[in-house]
Design goal:
Elements: H1 2-15, H2 26-38, E1 40-41, E2 44-46, E3 66-68, H3 73-93, H4 96-117, H5 144-148, H6 151-158
Antiparallel strand pairs: 1-2, 2-3
C-alpha cells in the first residue's frame, strides 16, 4: 500500500510545476508550527484545518471540531455545573437572551460529556458500532460455486 501511495505522489509531482515543491520560508514554517500550537485548548485539541480561522470565536465548548481529551472530564463537569448556575441566575434576573446563549453552551457541553463516555480511557482505539447492513436488492444470492470457484474450475466441474 505504501509503495502504491508513493507511486501516486511521484506521478502527481511529475505532473505539477516544480516551483510548487520549494522549501518553505522560515516564516511559513513558523506559521505552520504555530497553527498546531494554537490548536491546544483547555479541553483538548481544536480540529480545524491548517490556515483557517476559528469560526466559533473561540467558544470551544460549542464547536463540533473540538477533540475532547478524556483526562479533562473533571474540568468539563465543572463547566457544566457553572453553566447551570449561570442559567439559573439569568432566569432569575429575566435575562432571556443570556439564558438562550447559555443553554446552547450547556447542551453542547452535555453532548461532549456524553461523547466522553464512549471513549476508552485505557489507551485502546475507540470502537465505532456500524450497525447491521440492510440489503435492499431482491437479486437472489449467488450459488457457492459461482462465488468461490474460478471460471476454469467451474467448466471442469460441469463436464
Amino acid at each position: 500500500m505504501i509503495r502504491t501511495y508513493r507511486g501516486f505522489l511521484d506521478r502527481r509531482r511529475a505532473a505539477r510545476p516544480q516551483e510548487e515543491y520549494r522549501e518553505p520560508t522560515p516564516q511559513e514554517w513558523r506559521d505552520f508550527q504555530q497553527h498546531f500550537e494554537l490548536r491546544k485548548v483547555s479541553l483538548g485539541t481544536c480540529g480545524r484545518p491548517y490556515g483557517t480561522p476559528c469560526k466559533h470565536e473561540h467558544a470551544c465548548i460549542r464547536c463540533p471540531v473540538l477533540q475532547m481529551d478524556p483526562s479533562q472530564k473533571p474540568r468539563l463537569i465543572e463547566i457544566i455545573q457553572n453553566l447551570r448556575e449561570r442559567i439559573r441566575e439569568a432566569r432569575a434576573n429575566g435575562w432571556l437572551g443570556e439564558v438562550e446563549g447559555l443553554q446552547v453552551s450547556f447542551d453542547a457541553a452535555m453532548a461532549k460529556l456524553k461523547s466522553l463516555k464512549d471513549i476508552p480511557t485505557d489507551g485502546r482505539p475507540q470502537l465505532v458500532h456500524l450497525g447491521m447492513p440492510v440489503f435492499t436488492d431482491d437479486t437472489p444470492p449467488p450459488q457457492p460455486d459461482e462465488v468461490f470457484l474460478p471460471s476454469v474450475l467451474r467448466l471442469k466441474l460441469q463436464s
